[in-house]
## 1
Amino acid sequence: MKIVVLVPQALLILMTGCSFQLVSPPARMVNVESARSAAPGETVVGAKGAAHSAVFDAGAAIGTAEVRHGVVPGVEVDAEATYVRVIDRDYPDIDRNIYAARGGFKMSNAGGWAALLAGVGGGVSPAAGGFLAADVGGSISYPNCYAVPFLGGTLFASQPVAAKRVEFRGGDGSVVGYDTANTTLGFGVSTGVEIPLDRARCRTGMTPARIQIGLGMDVLRPVDGEPRLIPATGDTSMQLTTQAKTMATMGLAAGVEFPF
């Protein structure tokens, strides 16, 4: 029995061997972008979508809306809102919706081929509660006005807030396992290509309309995970505890951005 329920406070994850475990995820769910930042005074809006999965586990559909604004040369501030829907047929009584938001910045070098990124955010899962998260990372890319390959990496920490105990129930309605999310540390890596759609604007140093396509992976490790399993006898006084386990998901992502 397995289930992965991505939630911005609690990526509900049911691991192998009837082990039930929740982890608290990062605030940024989709990270496919080059190192280039928005030009001073320039505002860029965009949308991204991703599909994540893990071997033998449930998947998730992710949608993000974002806005970037150039402050000074090489520096932009950004904000994004994210919606996640877990795709899985098991435990249909658990709410699979997740809502998150994040604010941050990107600081690029003079050549626009390397950047530092950081941000803070949070979210809520109706089933598992809320969370706060912070992340820091970097990106490198090859600047040009035709096809920009990029590679990025992020470290993050996520802390549940007002976490709720989630119960996993069998077909007869009985509780077969339960868990509550706890502090989670992790990292993500992404790679892909960014395709400028307005080469004339790109050559002037401004941000062109662009398409982004990439592949990403996230690895999450709960600090003190204690998923609990109800024995087959139904005796809830006999609770078994398993150790925290490392989670990993992979996915494809695509996005589009337009400057104003």
## 2
Amino acid sequence: MVELMVVVLILGVLLAIAVSSIESITRIYRIAGDGQGIAAELNVARMRAAADFTHARVYADLIGNTFHTEVWNKAGGCWKTDGDASACTQTTSPVTPLAQGDTFGFGSITTGPTAATNAITQAPACTVGVAGAAAGTNIANTACIEINSRGYPVDSANKIVANDAIYLTNNQKLYSAVAVSISGQPTAYSYTGSTWTPF
């Protein structure tokens, strides 16, 4: 009987360790998946901007914890959610929600993943208009990375930039970032506690 109780106790300890490890690994995969998803959306935005000879952007809703691609409709003079049937709508669908427990933010981290993003900040707020003379006002609680028709990231004045990044956290000291280089190529990074590593 004593031996059986010892075996059960050992199995209970091993099970507790395994469950904790599985939860930790799940959190890591969730935040990594969200980073890869945003990087993929940025690649879609680059292709859509080039294909339609217009601007496209990845729109992050910092409160709703969702993201999606929008394309500038030149004829209508408005942003259109990619995949929406209407010509001039910014809708809540189709959008991609972040994984459970993930939010936009960078917590207490003070440096970004690249030299260009070392002054850590979320990408600039989305504007109601397109980059350049018609950028218009900022949309509160949003972050956008806007891409021009040549595939370069631009600011609201339509100047090419190399410091845009979108940061994610799950409040468990796990962080992810998607930074866009001056060439427009997005890269997803994870924070290991002291350094950013691409994945």
## 3
Amino acid sequence: MSLIVIPDDAPPVLAPSDAVTQLRDCDHRIYSTLPADSRQLIARIGEADAVINIRSSTGFSADVLADCPRLRLISIWGTGTDHVDLVAAKARGMTVTNTPAVAAAAVAEHTIALMFAVARQTVNIDRAVRAGEWPRAMVQQLHGKTLGVIGTGAIGRLVARLGAGIGMKVVAWSFNQRGDYAWVTFDDLFRRADVVSVHVRQSPETLGMIRAEHFALMKPSAIFINTARGRIVVEKDLVDALRDRRIAGAGLDVFETEPLPRESPLRLLPNVVLSPHAAGITREATEAGLAMAIGNVLSFRAGTPLHVVN
């Protein structure tokens, strides 16, 4: 019998959603805790022909896939696929789908919010006012500044539009240079931009692609924003640049290790604004993404697969 398993709805987003009603006529199981390890994951999905993956912390390695012979589809809620062995999935005839662009507006808005929070020192000033102070910080304005966008997919394009909308000049770099942008070289983007914002996927070619040599190119007044993936950046090099004030500040939604470890030096830096990999989590984007993830399963079963990654 066909079975859909959601092995990692923790904390629950699918179970309480409106989108879950699409599964009412399907045999399905929803687990409200994360699998403790790969063996527990296999125990949960071993009988399934389709999995809806909620959390990127759930890893679908070659070994996991080898122990799930009935599995034919992994439908990811989100765009990232770095936690799935796509080569092994393809070799076993398994299809992997995702939900492209569904959270683009949410992530782009969050990116702009981080830009403003860092530039205006919003968090530090809020704390000072709550403590009874009346600070007069000399903050930055973004209007008239240069925004450097790394990656011009759905999110990067929208960030560029929003940046231009508040009066910023936009320069861009991308692996695939399509569209009417002021294209610059990778290094030149770091030299020219007052705000550098990262919007490329995590892949073997992007791991650690931003490192000390790039922070050294940035202006002392520049801001670095990352709402893509933490491992695209060599985090230690970023910490050094922030600690030594070689750049003015950073807004980070993603990290090398998540959740952010208690001992992370980023927690202690006053020129950093942090959020918990939540840029795409709005009520609207969540419902749309969950509905698309379920729709990908139903379309696959109907013989018309959508949003196929592999």
